Amino acid sequence: MAFSDSAAKQLDAITGEAELHARDRALVAISVDPEAGELLPGDSSGPRLRQYVDDVERVRLVYWVTALKTVVVVASIEV
Question: What is the rounded CA–CA span in Å between residue 79 and residue 76?
Fold first, then answer.
């Protein structure tokens, strides 16, 4: 799993125990099943972004999956 610069900054800003748990749960979910999220509308000129939403933990991740199945979290990490 890799993180864009903006996603890494968002992750570093999370310090509360509940927020860390929520973030970790969402990251594990997409690392186990990279296709767990839904495809976001877009064209084929760039990577196909996906969105994973955990309504229980109130987390939303926007990411894409490389050809080698590496998950790249790009932004919009919300807790």
Answer: 10
Report the DSSP beta bridge partners of residue 38.
Answer: 51
Mind listing the pLDDT tens digit for each residue in 14-50?
Answer: 888 988 888 889 999 999 999 999 999 987 787 899 9
3-state secondary structure the chain: CEECHHHHHHHHHCCCHHHHHHHHHHHHHHHHCCCCCEECCCCCCCCCCEEEEECCCCEEEEEEECCCCCEEEEEEEEC
Report the alpha-carbon distance of residue 63 to residue 3 in Å, rounded.
Answer: 9
Query: Where do we find the tokens 């790249």?
Result: 72
> b or e along 55-73 (b: 16 or more beta carbons within 10 Å of the residue's beta carbon)?
eebebbbbbbbeeeeebbb
Q: Which residue has the tokens 């748990």?
A: 21
